[in-house]
């Protein structure tokens, strides 16, 4: 495993084979977002999108809290703690913070989340930008902005009701209360609950399964899952899905997959 030079003090980015491991690293502040963390997240997601040899990413955190959301002590924009690099990037990419938090321009590859401890406010909001989610049995979730007189700007009012039943989304958003890992599992907010301290192992198992599959096919499936929403008619969605399927079936990987099945061996995909 190699740490990449895009890492920052509060966001460690590492490469494990075909997997990008992104770790929030501000445990002394409950991994609350600051400008250096947002900078590392932004660079990680853009690298994931641009690198053909990266098939998926895992997002996790150091310490006993996954993420407490925005650093309220520092204020909404953390201008005083921002580096020249971050300020220059914001001038060039005004929505860099929303890209970092997976609200805008999500990478077109699977994102796996491993949550230990509290994931509150922005910690639960960034969760909704991921695809597969593992929670420790001590995890606690909550979109708590209303309790502070704030609005959840990272997309929860839009995404949450599309990911779990409307009435449960309304309860979380309007009451601003915490829910347990078991409640999150029952709501359909997470895929699996595992013993504390093992979420990263479980996330790596998911990543290993994904990396065995054809990367072009996986990327196309991710695109369909995210873009072909319920607001589209079934006919419209099917036509859009067919457009994604065509290049996949015409790829070398598709031919290799069918050949490997016939020869009863593991496929060797190249992403072409």
TrEMBL record:
Sample GO molecular function, one term: enoyl-CoA hydratase activity
Presence of keyword Cell membrane: no
Pfam families listed in its UniProt record: ECH_1 (PF00378)
Biological process terms in GO annotation: fatty acid beta-oxidation
SUPFAM superfamilies from the UniProt entry: ClpP/crotonase
EC number of the protein: 4.2.1.17
Keyword terms, alphabetized: Lipid metabolism, Lyase
Cell cycle found in the keyword field: no
Superkingdom of origin organism: Bacteria
Family: Belongs to the enoyl-CoA hydratase/isomerase family.
PANTHER family reported for this sequence: (7AS)-7A-METHYL-1,5-DIOXO-2,3,5,6,7,7A-HEXAHYDRO-1H-INDENE-CARBOXYL-COA HYDROLASE (PTHR11941:SF169), ENOYL-COA HYDRATASE-RELATED (PTHR11941)
Name of the protein this chain belongs to: Enoyl-CoA hydratase
